Amino acid sequence: MDIQEILLGFVGNNVVFLLLAVLLIVIILMGVRIVPQSEKYVVERFGKLRSVLGPGINLIVPFIDRVAHKISILERQLPTNSQDAITSDNVLVQVESSVFYRIIEPEKTVYRIRDIDAAIATTVAGIVRSEIGTLELDEVQSNRAQLIVRIQGALERIVDDWGIEVTRAEILDVNLDEATRAAMLQQLNAERARRAQVTEAEGSKRSVELNADAELYAAEQLAKARRLQADAEAYATSVVAAAIAENGLEAAQYQVALKQVEALTAVGAGEGKQTILLPANALDAFSDAFGLLKGRAP
Predict the structure, then answer these.
(1) What is the pLDDT of residue 29?
(2) Count of CA atoms in the C-beta half-sphere (13 A) of 188
């Protein structure tokens, strides 16, 4: 055996070992699957579901198992869907809705439904029409949050077999046709006019009530003042009566004379009067008053 044959044998053996090493590396690479955090892999063995690989490093049997589907488990949003619906009071509305969901069981999504987005959109359209058909237009406008909850609950019960989770459902807008919109606008204006009239009537009523209260208060205060004046006069009369009872006729005469003097003084105090005409017996009042004062002096 010469040197050439030895070299050929050595190279042949190394090539075999090299091929075996490459084959081993390929088998290892085919058997190891690294799944990202946001995905799940569906593995089939001879066309049949074998397993679902979660995030991280996973091992499969090379040449027997294969990754048939790579499914994203991130939350998805369906495109805005618009459908017509009729309320219970026979008003045609156009509802714009959207749904958010995520796949939680990829094996159900892959093998039970072909187009998951189209299926969900069709289901949402049917549910929206059904739910709106049980409500009047005013209830649709005012109870939108409750309507969304009902739609989401009905959708969750239907799509449970598809391996998805409905995270949120939204009603973006409820549009009306032009005729209905014009009728509602006319009704709204009429309601505003009615409220304005009611407010004006209530204001007039309140004004009348306040005026009546003011007049009643003024009357009460006037009556109170008259009552106080009457009490004062009664008190003064009682004092005079007591003085008369104590001092006899002289006290009465004194009071009369004093009032006469006060009256004459008031007449003389008038402005712009140069001459005052008095009856003849007017001066007697001063004489009587001074005589009584002199008589009452100790």
Answers:
(1) 83
(2) 7
Contact between 100 and 139 under an 8 Å Cβ cutoff? The reply is: no
Q: Where are the beta strands (DSSP E) in 60-203?
A: 65-72, 76-77, 81-86, 92-103, 164-176
Q: Are 163 and 87 in contact (CB under 8 A)?
A: no
pLDDT band at 276 (very low <50, low <70, confident <90, very high): low
- Report d(CA 134, CA 89) in Å as an integer: 9
Q: How far apart are CA 125 and CA 141, in angstroms?
A: 18
- Decide if 78 contacts 147 (C-beta within 8 A): no
CA distances from 128 to 62, 142, 252 (A): 48, 16, 103
**Is residue 67 within 8 Å of 50, Cβ to Cβ?**
no
Per-residue pLDDT reduced to its tens digit, 197-210: 888 888 888 888 88
**Cβ-contact 276, 268 below 8 angstroms:** yes
